[in-house]
Design goal:
There is one protein chain. This protein is mainly β and 130 residues long. It has one domain: Domain of unknown function (DUF427) (Metal Binding Protein, Guanine Nucleotide Exchange Factor, Chain A, Beta Complex), CATH 2.170.150. The chain contains 1 helix and 10 strands, in the order αββββββββββ. The strands form 2 sheets. The protein has a 7-stranded antiparallel sheet, with no helix packed on it.
Length: 130
């Protein structure tokens, strides 16, 4: 018997054929804002979802939160859950909602908990494969 999920995704319940894959990235992902490195990780994940470009999710331990400030912004995804956002400030520049995180995602997406993702149009993301 399969145990019941404690926090199941309503999106996957409605659309069980939808695929969102999360895999380890074999390399280093570095995120910069206004010339400052705000994240760098050899443990990044790649989330690939139908109809969207791949997104890097970086462990919180590899994100330099001294450049980031939590915001009141929140969005909801029926597959992943509720996302929180952070602003970035560095070198006298600022940008709103550059990073998001699903801090308490639905069970099916639990692998991205404790990770942040960045908007590539607001920051510079460099991914170097091993």
């Amino acid at each position: 018997m399969t145990p019941l999920a404690a926090n199941p995704s309503p999106g996957f319940q409605r659309n069980p054929t939808r695929r969102i894959n999360v895999t380890a990235f074999d390399g280093v992902v570095t995120v910069s804002f206004a010339g400052a490195i705000i994240a760098s990780s050899a443990s990044a994940l790649v989330l690939q979802e139908e109809d969207y470009l791949p997104v890097f999710y970086i462990p919180f331990s590899d994100i330099y939160f001294e450049f980031l400030t939590p915001t009141e912004t929140s969005t909801h995804c029926p597959y992943k859950g509720d996302a929180s956002y952070w602003n970035a400030t560095a070198s006298g520049e600022a940008a709103r909602n550059v990073m998001w995180s699903y801090e308490d995602p639905y069970d099916e997406m639990s692998g991205i908990s404790g990770h942040g993702a960045f908007y590539p149009e607001l920051v510079q993301i460099e991914a170097t494969k091993n």
